[in-house]
Amino acid sequence: MTPRPERAAAPARPRLPAAGWRIPGLLPHPLLSFCSLHAGRLFARLLLPALLILLAGCSGVIDADQASICRAVAPALHEDGVDIREIALRPVPNEPHALRLAYTVRDDLGSRAHWLICQFAGAGGTARFDLVDVETDHGGVSDIKLLILKRWWLPEHTGRSLSGAAFGMGASAAYWVQQALNGLTLAGIYGLMATSFALLYGLTGRINLALGEIGVFGGTAMLIGMTVALASGTLSGPTLLLAFLAGIAAAALLGGVLGQAVLLPVMARARGTQPVLIAGVALAVVIGEALRITVPNRENWLPPLLNLPIPLAGRSGGFIATTTPAQLLATGLGFSGASVLLGLIGLTGFGRAWRAYAQDPGMAALLGVNVPRLLSATFLLSGGAAGLAGTMAVVAYGTVEPGAGLAVGLKALIAAVIGGIGSIPGAFLGAIVVATVETLWSATFNIVYRDVVIYSLLIAFLVLRPGGLLNRAAPSPREF
Questions:
Q1: Contact (Cβ atoms closer than 8 angstroms) between residue 477 and residue 273
Q2: What is the DSSP secondary structure assignment for residue 296, as one 8-state letter?
Q3: In terms of C-beta density within 10 A (0-12 exposed, 13-18 middle, 19 or more buried), how is residue 69 classed?
């Protein structure tokens, strides 16, 4: 009897690279990979919901100028020499243009609690400076007293001296603490913008120089959303959150449309990288000019929301390092965005497809990666990251300037090259380097030469270490 031939074993099905593989766009070391992936998972599960609940739960957003005016009213209502201490300053429910200040007054007779409500003419423009009514726990302030208060008292007493820093230190140390705080916000903006370059370059080997202006477009969309909210008379945490999300969504949509309509056709027809670079510059000029021409038709400044100074380090009478809730929020958004992007690349199906295509496009397509969908999603994601950087700039600095995106984009590109272009963690590492050098130079030397130093740093890396700090770039600068 003829023995029955055994069935040949089926070949093992090839699998997409796992999260810890060392392929382009991923972390260079398993320990760093482990930390970043768990940081992204922690943010996705805990920090992001907490941020959304915090913003959505805010009953109102306090205008820093209105807060300063309302605080200055309290001393005018009491005798000279009394000690006035603030308890709370909050928006008034169902009164979009009013603030309620609760405070205590201490004198020889003891301590007593009081409150007052400041009513303003509006939440935007010059109306937010116009104090139209003051109510106290003893009744309303008469029109004559209000006129005297506005004309002679408030112009001289709206300033607020800082005291009670959390950490006591000398003026020199406090000065460097202040520079470090400023550099963190800058590093977050540069890092997100550099990530936009890394996402596209790691997948296509091309650089989109329009990403800077796409970020400015996202910031402008946020300003437009805030203008609509102010026109409706409501200024609260949810409206700020909606305007913020609208800015990111607008930038993501613009990045996706421009990628599909302009950049992908140019990539398909061009053999080299120069046509894509030229197309990116052209798109940046078009977006910047369109935003510049339309500036007179819109409000291009965010009211000073969440800008009450918080003294952190120093001593009374000397230099005090301060921060603001807006600066803390912008910095937190930047590094939270970094955690989300690292988690997205390391933990999701999109990230596995992205890493597989970055390593071997042909094999990724054979294994079933939907390349058109992957490219579309990457353009959307890079535009969204740039939009997050633009909205961060609005939150931290109050505005974004049309045409400034190209300069910011070039510095972000420098950060991506220094970190290792095509590497997402490298983009943030390079952003920290660029922000540190820029901040230290501005604080120590002549600020006029700041950009000269930054661009010289790029030249040095291209000559001495073209692969960047994480050695993820091409071995020769000619491939840039």
A1: no
A2: G
A3: buried
Domain count, the chain: 2
Q: Are residues 373 and 244 in the same domain?
A: yes
Query: Helices (DSSP H) in 13-153: which residue ranges?
Result: 30-42, 48-57, 64-76, 143-148
Query: Cα(105)–Cα(84) distance, rounded to whole angstroms?
Result: 5
Q: How many CB atoms sit inside 10 A of residue 16's CB?
A: 18
Chain center to CA of 304: 16
Do 77 and 189 belong to one domain? no
pLDDT tens track for 179-222: 999 899 999 999 999 999 999 998 888 999 999 999 999 999 99
Q: Among 102, 123, 157, identify where a domain stops.
A: 157
* Same domain assignment for residues 145 and 232: no
Residue 304 inside a domain? The answer is yes
**Cα gap 346→473, rounded to integer Å:** 19
Question: Do 370 and 404 have their domain in common?
Answer: yes
Residues 223, 244: Cα–Cα separation, whole Å: 9
**What mean pLDDT comes out for the span 327-344?**
88
| Residue 296, pLDDT score | 83
Say which CATH number the domain at 107 has: 3.10.450
Cβ atoms within 10 Å, residue 279? 21
pLDDT, position 52: 44
Same domain as 129, residue 222: no
What's the rounded Cα separation, in Å, for the pair 86 and 119? 18
Q: Are 196 and 416 in contact (CB under 8 A)?
A: no
State the chain's mean pLDDT as an integer.
81
Q: Give the chain's length.
A: 480
Q: Please count the other Cβ atoms lying within 10 Å of the Cβ belonging to residue 242.
A: 18
Q: How confident is the model at residue 471 (pLDDT cuts 50, 70, 90)?
A: low
142 inside domain? yes
The answer to whether residue 130 scores a pLDDT higher than 80 is yes
Domain that holds residue 78: 64-157
Helix (H, G, I), strand (E, B) or coil at 23: coil
For residues 304 and 217, membership in a common domain is answered with yes
Residues 409 and 356 in one domain: yes
Residues whose CB is less than 8 angstroms from the CB of residue 191 and which lie 6 or more positions away in sequence, other chains included: 334, 338, 415, 427, 428, 431, 432
> How many CA atoms within 13 Å lie on the side-chain side of 372?
4
Residue 111 lies in a domain: yes
Q: For residue range 377-405, what is the model confidence (pLDDT) as tens digits? A: 999 999 999 999 999 999 998 889 888 89
